C-alpha cells in the first residue's frame, strides 16, 4: 500500500510517499487556502494510488493539534483515505541538521521548502519504523 506523509504548515506542506517501505520526498505544496491545499493532496492521492495518509502531529501544542485534526477531518471527508498521526517533535530540527552542509540560505524559500520535504519524509519513516501500517 502506498502511504502519503504530510508535514502541515501555515503556507507549505511537506510531502513524502512510501512505495513498499521505500520513502521519498515529493515537491512541497505551497498554498494560500485550505481548499487549494486539499485539492493538491487529492491529486497526489489519485495519481499515486494512496491507501493511507500519515500527518505529523505537533504533540503538546493543543491549538496546533486542533488545526491539524480539523485539516485531517476535512481531507478525510473528501478523499475517503484513512488518516493516522505521527509525532512530529524535532523533525524540523533533524531536517535542519541534514541540510547543514548544503550551503542554502536559511532565510530562503528554497531552504524552507527543503525543511518541509525532509520533515515529511522523517515523519513517514518514523511511522513505518513503528510498524503501524
Automatic annotation (TrEMBL):
<dbReference type="GO" id="GO:0000967">
    <property type="term" value="P:rRNA 5'-end processing"/>
</dbReference>
<protein>
    <recommendedName>
        <fullName>Putative pre-16S rRNA nuclease</fullName>
        <ecNumber>3.1.-.-</ecNumber>
    </recommendedName>
</protein>
<comment type="function">
    <text>Could be a nuclease involved in processing of the 5'-end of pre-16S rRNA.</text>
</comment>
<dbReference type="InterPro" id="IPR006641">
    <property type="entry name" value="YqgF/RNaseH-like_dom"/>
</dbReference>
<dbReference type="InterPro" id="IPR037027">
    <property type="entry name" value="YqgF/RNaseH-like_dom_sf"/>
</dbReference>
<keyword id="KW-0690">Ribosome biogenesis</keyword>
<keyword id="KW-0963">Cytoplasm</keyword>
<dbReference type="InterPro" id="IPR012337">
    <property type="entry name" value="RNaseH-like_sf"/>
</dbReference>
<dbReference type="Pfam" id="PF03652">
    <property type="entry name" value="RuvX"/>
</dbReference>
<comment type="similarity">
    <text>Belongs to the YqgF HJR family.</text>
</comment>
<feature type="domain" description="YqgF/RNase H-like">
    <location>
        <begin position="1"/>
        <end position="95"/>
    </location>
</feature>
<dbReference type="GO" id="GO:0005829">
    <property type="term" value="C:cytosol"/>
</dbReference>
<keyword id="KW-0540">Nuclease</keyword>
<keyword id="KW-0378">Hydrolase</keyword>
<dbReference type="GO" id="GO:0004518">
    <property type="term" value="F:nuclease activity"/>
</dbReference>
<dbReference type="GO" id="GO:0016788">
    <property type="term" value="F:hydrolase activity, acting on ester bonds"/>
</dbReference>
<dbReference type="InterPro" id="IPR005227">
    <property type="entry name" value="YqgF"/>
</dbReference>
